[in-house]
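Throughout our pipeline, every protein is held as a single compact record rather than as scattered files. This encoding replaces a full spatial description with a residue-level series of whole-number codes. The remainder of this section carries one protein's record, kept here as part of the documentation.
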Amino acid sequence: MNTTDGCKDAVYLTQDITKQIITLTTGVLALSATFVKIFITSSPENFIILIFAWSLLTFSIIAGLFTLSSMVNNLKNNKYEPFSIYTTIPAITQWICFILGFILFWIFVALNLDP
């Protein structure tokens, strides 16, 4: 295996991980939007947490799309650079938004559970 094959594999693995995060994020958004009526009676402060969670999850999807676009552009130009700045910054943004959005979502759920 030469270096180019390793870089190609890294690019494809990065694409797969990015797609997985987009899928998980979309699922959380869709599921929470489906059951939002349950939480309508929640306090306004708690609902703001949900809005922030949804915003972060949406930004995660957008950053993931930027990551995939950057990788497609690299592959189109026969550049196998999984850690270029144009790929790394959106990928890190995607991860941070996903993790924070997911944490905020579960905080919202925990605050709205019946004791």
Summary: Residues 33 and 115 are 23 Å apart (CA to CA). The chain has one domain: 3-112. The mean pLDDT is 85. The chain is about 80% helix and 0% strand.
